[in-house]
## 1
Amino acid sequence: MSFLSPLFLAGAIAAAVPIVLHLLKRHTEQRIRFAAVALLKGAPVEHTSTRRLREFLLLALRVAALAMLAVAFARPFFGAGSAMSGGLSVVAVDTSLSMSAPGSVARTRQLFIDAVRQAPPGDDVAVVTFADRADVVVRPTANRNEALAAIANVAPGFGSTSYAAALGASAELFHGRKGTVVVVTDLQASGWDADRGASIPASVGVEVRDVVTDVARDAGRGQDNLAVTSLRADGDRVVATIHNAGSRPRDAHARLTVDGRTAGAATLNVGAHGAADAVFPGVRSAGVASVSVDDPGGIPGDNTRYAILGADAPATVLVVTTSGDLDKDAWYVRHALAAARGVSTTELATTSDDVLRRYGVVVLLSTHGLEPRARERLAAYVAGGGGLLVAAGPDLDAAVAADVLGAADRLDIVAGRESQPMFLAPADVRHPIFRAFGAEAASLGLVQFRRVARVTGRACQAIARFTSGEPAVLDCAAGSGRAIVFASDLNDRWNDFPVRASFVPFLDQAARYLSSHGRRGSEFLVGDVPPGVKPVPGVTTIDTGTGARRVIVNVDPRESAADRMSPDDFQSAITRLKADAVNAERTDAAGQESRRPLWQFLLGAMMLALVAEGLVAARSA
Amino acid sequence: MDYLDPAVVARLGTLELKARAVVEGFIAGLHRSPFKGFSVEFAEYRQYIAGDDLSTMDWKVYARSDRHFVKKFEEETNLQCQLLVDVSASMAYKSESFGARGMSKFEYAACLAASLGYLMHRQRDAVGFTAFSDRIVDTLPPSTRPGHLRNILVALDRLEVASRTDVAKPLHRIAETMTKRGMVILISDLLDDPDAVIRGLKHFQYRGCDVLVFQVLDPDELDFPFDRATRFEDLETGEEIMAVPGAVRDHYQRQMGALIDRYRRELGSAGIDYQLLNTGEPLEMALLSYLSTRSRTV
């Protein structure tokens, strides 16, 4: 048995109180040495032995009641203690796109079987599959056959690799137990890119079973793969980037289709470990384009890529500045958000709603010249599901910006003022904008703010605050869309945020969050598809609330990269923090305790003990 | 000063002094009692005064001296009396309400034995003494020698309460040693098996002795006046019983009453004199009982 709050066990000392009282009372009882005791026999008297038994029973009931009260407050639970008795082997199998290379599937399954069978005797075994996210296929079990039966799930999909997801899901299974995570993977280097490592309890070991090394050894050669890693429209041309992951140059035969009709073909030579663009000129029609390459010996899932051409193509970010010249007004934002386009405040008033809806995110940096009509348009855009990022910098007029979310969702902005240097700290690290920072969220605290605005909103929640306690970043709901309000400047005038390493990820994550929320985007990676969209490459339609819209889903181009890491590099990216282990164990303990609230039974037993004590005491009175 | 009051007697120094005070006080009271002139032994002459019984006139003295004298007599027999004093642990009980005054059952019994011895010695009866618990602790054979009373008083003074009671066993043993008819006086709380006690006493009768039994009990043992929950520890066995007196008083008093009645009834039917003595009451009743028994014996 374990305890969630063991300090309360100190309260059991109170159980000594009735013992002390019992000992004290024992000496105060009148005692008479009497000659005719024999005549008392048979009378309704209590013999000493009976009396002592009754007293000890009373004492035991009182002590038990107090002890049970203390133990109940300590929140006992079963589970962790018993679980600690045996180890656990978690077999985490990589099912990302890169694992679909020829020969890898069979080898992966063999390594999986070996890992299950080689688990230490007495250990439980669990099975986790992972790509962008991890799924626990078989929870910890002593039944090896049950674990082996999960081989049906060991099949690659189209997702990208996330080792952090794999190790995170695996770590949650340990619940304080010791054991090992066996990772069956191709050791693709990009698996750490987005996650920047993972933490795992110090008591858990990590083993790596390298699929690629075994396949290459079996095939007697390295991995060959051609992939279409990029597809974009450039005027009336369509440009596809073909990547060769092999160690020898290859001829790539690329074909372009638009809405299912062949629109062009090209053959190009791609050097070893290199990339080349396949250009398809004269493509004027709008629609869904796809470019495919023939690659029978490589990963099949990355041979085709999709893009939306013409009016359907979204320009993801629209930045509203005074002049519309981003190099002049928003240099840092422009370079942080490569897909950003600029528009002046005056032009915004004349931009149609349809055009505005093409943008996943609108970044409002200035209100100089922003007419009421433009503000209404922005409000309608947000209400219709658009994402708006507002920077309350020097170019933002508080009174003008107040109704950019609509009159009903008024923002109260007090213009920026000089202040002592202050810093920023996330108030909700689980927010999607900060979640991606992971352990690096602390880097946001390096940004020094010299001037900040005070922003409040009825439908806004502060997700980050300045060290003064004032909101720094607010997440505001408005209709079907959302707005992020940054209470300072984004152009290196009121703070040094743009020159900090956290600036680009912050804007990137904010743009992703805002664009994905209202389903404004039309291009998704397999790992980022919104609900209702299958994580499979191709074209599909989604309901935006205002009508159906075609969207495309592509595989993550990083999955086509041949960059691999060594098992040592893999291990070095893993952080083993005891504190994390302790916290995880405590969280798990709280979960176990809440599932089986023994304290309720203990309090019930305590009440019964008190009732019994009352009955016994009444008989002794 | 009432020398028959236990509270007064308890404050007197030696047992001899106590005995003398009791007996003299008792005899002084007897001048108004029907026991006047019980002795047959000549004690002294006294000048005749009007109203004296002419049968006590000594005519020979009148013939020789021409004066009228009447003869004063003391009873003189060859009575042998054995005082049996129970010194078991239960005799040590003394009511807390007495405080420094009053006597324990043992002290009361010793004082009674001394008084009886003093009285007997004064009457020229042969008096002996035996102390017993579950065995014979001390014994002096009956004698009329001048210093014998002192020996008895010294022996009584030296007595201490002993261990458990087994009245029957020493009674039988003493009865076996009795060689001459006489009187046996048992002073005990009789908190023992009544059957065994009665059998032992009947043994004396079988040996031709007259038996007088004094059951000495403390007022607490008769009235059970305790009021709060009490752990009663047996003086002899150490057995403890926890009791709420209010709840057990009736039962106890019934038991005690039944025990006393049984002694009184069975001993009476066997021709054995029985007298219940309360240590809070004067010794007068005890001495009267003795004299009553003695008058029947001689």
## 2
Amino acid sequence: MPVDELSDLEMDLLDGFQREFPLQPRPYAALAERLGCDEATVLRCLAEFVDRGLVSRVGPVFAPHRAGASTLAAMAVPSGRVDEVAALVSSFDEVNHNYERQHRLNLWFVVAAPGAARVRAVLDEIAARTGLEVLDLPLQEAFHIDLGFPLKWT
Amino acid sequence: MDVSTNELRLIAEIQDGLPLEPQPYAAVGRRLGIGELEVIEAIRRLIERGIIRRFGVVLSHRDLGYRANAMAVWDVPDGAVREIGGRMAALSFVTLCYRRPRRLPDWPYNLFCMIHGRDRTTVKQLVDDAARAARAERYPRAILFSSRRFKQRGARYAPSPTASGEAER
């Protein structure tokens, strides 16, 4: 649903707690206090956001390469095989993002695992099972500090 | 890799999100056999050490009406990538900005930005703005719009105790 269909309370809850979530025994009550509502309302709204797909989770975003290894991979998949190859790629628990994009390299996905060897093994297995080349594009340098996404200013 | 075994167990419990119940840290602690305050302190240390770079509500852009999700890429000289990347990363509409390797001849681009907007026209304008602001207008670039999303969730660095292989959440 578009952002402009949300109530002020819902908007504040979505936008205001993308970082520095309270590290205290009753964090949702702390959010409620700042929003001027009660804990049950905060919990109900968040559960709805998750059900409707607006929020993927309340929790951590990990820095790349600190808790494990990851890479961005790209493939040029023939148009008739995109669904089949995408389904194979998504079936790996190590794959967290998997998108079709409009380019000759049309399938883009992120592989994350506890170690680099497992990341490499997933890429190799996808290449072997599809007969297609998998480009490995690991992060070399991050210029961005992730502060969340400013809903109210875009 | 600079996390302990206990931290990996904690990461496995929280990587798909905190429970939506009044005392989520206590609930995580019960599953790990540790106390609520130990969970809170362990998460605080992961944040302080930069292993967790952000802790809070993680939005799904596409479902919020930001349907044009584009990867904008540039081929800039290696000696200028840090300067140009730094300028792009400072723009509010650039949500990620990374240097990655070229893979010639298939892939000539070494600077990657994620840009979200309500529609493609807006995103194209934002990419123009980014090029101008970062003084990268003269370098080759491409915009890769997403047409379908097959999977999106947080990275799972630790094997999840509840993972069922192919389940997507």
